[in-house]
Amino acid sequence: MKFNILQQDLLPALQAVSRSAGFHSTLPVLSNLLLSVSSHNLKISATNLEIGVIKNLPADMLEPGDITVPAKTITELVLSIGPVKLEFLSEGDTLNISAGKFKAKINGISATEFPVIPTSNQNPVNFKRKILEQIQQVLFAAAADEGRPTLTGILTQSASSKLDFVATDGFRLAHRQVSVGKEVHFKSLIPKRTFEEVLRVLTEEAVEEVSISTSKDQNQVIFQIGGTMISSRLIEGNFPAWEKIIPEDIKTRIIVEKDNLLQAIKLASVFAKGEANIVTLNPLPSKLVVTSEAKEVGQQENEIESEVSGENFPIAFNVKFLTDILQSVSSTQVLIELSGALSASLIKPVGLEGLEYILMPVRTS
Questions:
Q1: What backbone phi and psi angles, to 5 degrees, belong to 113?
Q2: What is the distance between the terminal CA atoms of the chain, rounded to a whole angstrom?
Q3: How far apart are CA 258 and CA 355, in angstroms?
Q4: DSSP letters spanning 243-280
Q5: How far apart are the C-alpha atoms of 254 and 286, rounded to whole Å?
Q6: How far is CA 310 from CA 47, 82, 242, 307, in A?
Q7: Crossing angle of the two packed helices 319-328 and 258-269, in degrees rounded to 10
Q8: Which of 334, 270, 282, 283 is nearest to 309 (CA)?
Q9: Which residue from 150, 221, 247, 285 could staple onto 237, CB 3.0 to 4.6 Å apart?
Q10: Measuring CA to CA, which residue among 224, 347, 326, 186 is closest to residue 265?
Q11: What is the mean pLDDT of the chain?
Q12: Which H/E stretch holds residue 175?
């Protein structure tokens, strides 16, 4: 293998692909990047066996071939060299790099030991990038605990011209529905980590559309984002029947300025210490009273001007869960719908259709 490429063209690709290398794996080759050259194209690949990333970029090919080299080593080296033309030549399992009077050799591993990254792109569905960017509003609600694998994924489904993203950890649920403008049939349970990588790549690729396809035989989902392909395992199992937990019997409605409520919650969090981490909302005529206390710290009370209709009763929430929701809302006002002190509550941005959060209250003694 022999090729030339500018350092400023190669470095961003190395940095982006290296994020998906398996640095903590017991298989040494997974901490390597696969460099493949053919037809004036350099392909850089990485995988941790859960997520695989392939990035294509133009290069001056002199001889085709491939080799794997440690991701950290080659990335740090190319970063330190600076903006010059780089020359690469592989000899067996060694990669020679030269730039002017500088020369280096990196010990690699044969490309034959690198796992195959699924690239099947059958029956792809195309979505506008702005549609996939909406996933940011629900990601935080997915579970981090691998003990319940299905809750670590984002249910992504469409059976009409609407696309639903749903995430839940069992205590809170986030649902974003967006219009795709055409009838689309798609359903997958995609890992949260995969969507996080998709969002990062979207900031690096100037594209308007993203292609998504699934491979049933390999249980994979494949994203094509410009010159970058992301392949990921799908999560097996049944996602909770989330539609059934949406509250219908609403007893109290509160409309409040989001920034005012968020500021009050942040102040309340100073006193919401301990395992419970509780903040209490008490809707009263024309105001919402936010309280919190901890025996070892103290207590606080804050009144916020609000539009309140319906019954008046206090309800307690986990302060972090409530903060996460408010920070994900871009509207100036939020609507809080309560169905009881111990029943699931709905939180929606005012003026934005298709986004809703369900939050379970905390039982207080």
A1: -90, -5
A2: 70
A3: 15
A4: GGGS-----EEEEEEHHHHHHHHHHHHTT--TTT-EEE
A5: 9
A6: 54, 65, 26, 10
A7: 150
A8: 283
A9: 150
A10: 326
A11: 92
A12: strand 172-179
> Does the pLDDT of residue 237 top 80, yes or no?
yes
Q: Which domains, from first to last, does the chain contain?
A: 2-113 (3.10.150.10), 125-240 (3.10.150.10), 246-359 (3.10.150.10)
CA distance 187 to 190: 9
Query: What pLDDT was estimated at residue 40?
Result: 84
Signed CA dihedral, 88, 89, 94, 100: sign only: negative
pTM: 0.90
What is the rounded CA–CA span in Å between residue 187 and residue 154? Answer: 10
Tokens of 286: 């024309």
| Tokens of residue 358, six digits | 């369900």
- Among residues 202, 197, 227, 191, the alpha carbon closest in space to that of 131 is found at 202
Pairwise pLDDT comparison (183 vs 332), residue with the higher score: 332
**CA contacts within 13 A on the Cβ side of 301:** 5
Tokens for 338, please give them: 């309560």
Residue with tokens 């990254």: 117
CB 332 within 8 A of CB 350: yes
Query: At which residue do the structure tokens 């690469």 appear?
Result: 88
As beta bridge partners, residue 210 has 127
DSSP state of 141: G
Instruction: Tell me the per-residue pLDDT of 277-335, one tens digit each, with 9 for 90 and over.
Output: 899 999 999 999 999 988 888 889 999 999 999 999 999 999 999 999 999 998 999 99
What are the tokens at 99? 């730039």
pLDDT of 98 above 70: yes
| Residues 191/153, Cβ–Cβ less than 8 Å | yes
Distance CA 359, CA 244 (A): 14
Tell me how crowded residue 251 is: count the other CB atoms within 10 A of its CB. Answer: 16
Q: Looking at the DSSP assignment, which residues form a beta bridge with residue 148?
A: none
* Distance separating alpha carbons of residues 75 and 308, to the nearest angstrom: 56
**Contact predicate 264/302, CB 8 Å:** yes
User: What tokens appear for 125 in the block?
Assistant: 């569905």
Amino acid at site 311: E
